[in-house]
Amino acid sequence: MAASESKTEAAKTAFRPFVPATETRPELTLRALLLGAIFGVLFGAVTVYVGLRAGLTVAASIPISVLSISILRAFGKASILENNIVQTTGNAGQSIAPRHLHPARAHLPRLRSPVLPHLRPRPSSADGSASSS
Fold first, then answer.
1. I need a labelling partner for 130 at 20 to 30 A (CA). Which of 7, 11, 50, 62 fits?
2. Does the CA dihedral 67-65-58-95 come out positive or negative?
3. What are the two backbone dihedrals, phi and then psi, of residue 124, each rounded to the nearest 5 degrees?
4. Residue 88, exposed/middle/buried by CB under 10 A (0-12, 13-18, 19+)?
5. Digits of tens for pLDDT over the chain (133 positions)?
6. pTM of the model
7. Which long-range contacts (CB under 8 A, 24 or more apart) does 81-84 make?
């Protein structure tokens, strides 16, 4: 009896993939790549702005994945694999953007342009809040 019980337990805990190998779902589609590229540019610009303004960057992986689920469902039936492509593409584009922030922040105090005064770094206090200067 012990051998049959262990086989039953193993069958219950065996790994079952969410998308079976016998099923074909759309994955690398044009709309997934375009939506991911748009999210990469949009969230990349936000990351650069926040990085220059506040001095820190944040990951946008979760907002991109939530938005991709919503937008792809609005455009029709979407698969989890397609959402994965959008999230991966968008996050890859967004994560490349802040690589050049450190050199840019080093040169910002030297800028004398009246066009970009809002990008000058603000000093912050010990608790992380920005000063009113």
1. 62
2. negative
3. -120, 160
4. middle
5. 555 566 666 667 788 888 888 888 888 999 999 999 999 999 988 888 887 777 777 888 899 999 999 999 998 888 899 999 999 999 998 888 777 666 666 666 666 655 555 555 555 555 555 555 4
6. 0.66
7. 81/19, 81/25, 81/26, 81/27, 82/25, 82/26, 82/27, 82/29, 82/31, 82/32, 83/32, 84/27
Q: How far is CA 68 from CA 31, 46, 47, 116, in A?
A: 11, 17, 18, 33
Q: Which residue has the tokens 């805990």?
A: 13
Tokens of 93: 């584009």
Q: Alpha carbon of 26 to those of 74, 94, 114, 130: distances in Å?
A: 16, 24, 50, 46
Give the position of tokens 């019980």.
5
